[in-house]
Amino acid sequence: MFMSTSIGMQHAVDKLQTQINATLPWLKNWRLTLSPEKSIAIKLGRRELQNTSLLRINNTAIQWRTTVKYLGVHLDNRLTFRRHAIETAIKAKRTRAALYPIISHHSPIPLRARLNIFQMYVRTTLTYAGPAWGAQLSLNSSKKLEAVQNVALRTITGSPWYVRNTTIQASTHKISVQQSVTKDAENMYARLATSNHHHLRNICQTIGPEETARKRPKALTI
């Protein structure tokens, strides 16, 4: 992955192109290939792409996109992670549906085992890479993820419609998706603070100015 930052959009693109051009001979020397067809360029921020040139790999233009999937996380150009929440909810719903025969309250499997299956397959899908996107997620996007978990727990316990979701969570000793993501973030930053590697201790330590609505990942821990 290549990255560059600049006040001017074209200047950032020029720096990226310089990185790519410098890397291509090294890749060729080690008999590696950078595929233009599988490469995607994305701009993060509010500035428009008007009059901005395209990046090129071996004279093949790389088109600019508004969203990109990187290491299983959907990144959008405003870093709202709305697309990630939608795609994650869809994936978790499919997993929940596939597991329905064994996690339903009609299943002969003990309740504790069904909850463990939910934790391993559905919950991990909902909270994957949570410390990276949890602070940026809007309330509506967060509700989409919470709804998937609430339906799963209601399916597992067989609770009727009039029982509150908070009551079901308490009876099954489960916390909300947002609480789980926050807990993961706190554990991650605690491990980073005691790391022997200086560059790891400084990862995403800034919280951001209070006067702006844009939060940073560590804002989850306060």
From TrEMBL:
<protein>
    <recommendedName>
        <fullName>RNA-directed DNA polymerase from mobile element jockey</fullName>
    </recommendedName>
</protein>
